[in-house]
Amino acid sequence: MGRFFLGAFAAILGTILLPAPAGAAEITRVASRGEPGNPFDLQVTIRWDRLQRAAQITREVPDGAIPGAIVDGDELRWSRTTNAVVPRVSIALYKDLAIHFEWPYVLGDDQEWRFGLVGGVPTGGIPSVISSIESNAVDAAGAPCTVACPLFPVAPKTTVYHGGKAGDLRAGVAWGVFNDRKDPTKPFWLVGLDVTFPTAALYDPAGGRLTRTIWSSPHNVSGNSGPFGEKVWKWDLYTVLSRRLGPIDPYVKAHLTRMSKSSATYSNCEHVAALATRTVPEMNPSAIGDCADPAWEKEASAKLPWVAGLTLGTELVPWEDDAERQKMAIDLRLRGDYTSSSRFYNELTDANGKLNWTEDHFTMGAFLGVYLEASRYVSLHATASLSTTTPHFITGEPDPANPNFDARYDTPGRRFRISEVSLFQVAFGGVLTF
Questions:
Q1: Each residue of 229-284: pLDDT tens digit?
Q2: What's the rounded Cα separation, in Å, for the pair 347 and 352?
Q3: CA-to-CA distance for 71 and 310, rounded, in angstroms?
Q4: Minimal CA–CA distance to 421: which of 339, 306, 302?
Q5: d(Cα 356, Cα 338) in Å, to the nearest integer?
Q6: How far apart are CA 283 and CA 272, in angstroms?
Q7: CA 23, CA 13: separation in Å to the nearest integer?
Q8: Which residues pair with 320 in a beta bridge?
Q9: If residue 274 lies in a helix (H) or strand (E), which one and from where to where?
Q10: Pairwise CA distance, residues 40 & 330, whole Å
Q11: What element of type H or E holds 8?
Q12: Chain-centre distance of CA 339, in angstroms?
């Protein structure tokens, strides 16, 4: 009996530690061609993505108990829901070398905000205290308002609708430098570059509200969904290493995303004259001259963020039939991303109609994926992830001389901050391989 258990333990240990003949993790999937039994690969994927984001937005306000002290006052509950259908095509060029394209159609991308809580109980649209948003009494230059000048509408709740349009086209190339299925002495090493083209229609956050008495978006009714394009190029360079060890397939991924402006990238200077000459100026009147000054041309435009991140994960393969190309895999990941400071679209843009300064921050999350490969030709995917970000300011232009500086949002003591962020994403898709 002792020999039996010893032999069984050795067999299990050998299964775990010895390289398996099956392919690498799903994260390293790449179409291939020119191999025995596989003259050509064409992979067609259709996927549904749903992303729900929610957060608390606070604002620096005077501490009533301590003169001169500043505290974070609870102002808003913010949420955003995005639904998209994403077709994707991957075409093999050579052995473990492929190009791919995806072009999402965004069904809806809606943001909503309402006032915060009183003692943890929803207020139903009533400010949790005397709201600093509704009681605002200064304009963008910091001068006293001559008429009532709330920052933007809130009560009972406000929703701004986007979607019903094609998103940005994304194309890329992926190369499996090493493949542990073909050479068990090496890991699977994938490198790739994805480029996002600015094909989606530009979202002008101030457009449509310049002639309105109340500073509200024209897209706050569901029948008038607005565009959502940012009109920037995105370059995502990544590399993945994975190593199949029996029923487990650990991997690590690193990526760097940079952005560059296009000729249509939005700037707050786009409508400077109209913004600065409103009854309640939405931009400092001195910005009219500054935005036209070549010395300010670069500094006054959008300042794009960059993102760098690391993912650690493993696939667990509880069942597999390599001869029939059938497999079930469970994918577990942890990720962390750093996002640099920027002047760009953020959680307050739909409300205040401008590009805002966003402080640098970290995003951390966990991911679960289930992959069912029915045959060489058909597989199904279902994934879910939950993430959060570190609290950070979403206003606070650092240079008061910059034309973008708005005394209502950027002055220390009036800045907005986001916290208690949750990002929940699910996706379901199928892959056909020809």
A1: 999 999 999 999 999 999 999 999 999 999 999 999 999 999 999 999 999 999 99
A2: 10
A3: 34
A4: 339
A5: 18
A6: 7
A7: 20
A8: 327
A9: helix 272-276
A10: 27
A11: helix 2-17
A12: 10
Cα 389 to Cα 56, 110, 331, 365, 396, distances in angstroms: 12, 20, 22, 9, 18
- The per-residue pLDDT for range 369-394, each reduced to its tens digit, is 999 999 989 999 999 999 999 999 99
| In contact, 238 and 191? CB cutoff 8 Å | yes
Q: Are 377 and 255 in contact (CB under 8 A)?
A: no
Task: Locate 32 and state its tokens.
Answer: 């291939």
d(CA 101, CA 103) in angstroms, rounded, equals 7
Cβ atoms of 128 and 120 closer than 8 Å? no
Mean pLDDT by 10 residues, the chain (434 residues): 40 37 77 81 96 96 80 93 98 96 98 77 54 93 94 93 98 96 91 98 96 93 95 98 94 98 97 95 95 92 98 96 91 98 98 98 98 94 98 97 97 96 98 94
Position 125 scores a pLDDT of 52
From residue 221, give the alpha-carbon distance in Å to each of 38, 204, 218, 371. Answer: 52, 17, 7, 39
Residues constituting the chain: 434
The one-letter amino acid at 205:
P
pTM to 2 decimal places: 0.91
DSSP state of 227: -
Residue 32 CB: number of other CB atoms within 10 A? 20
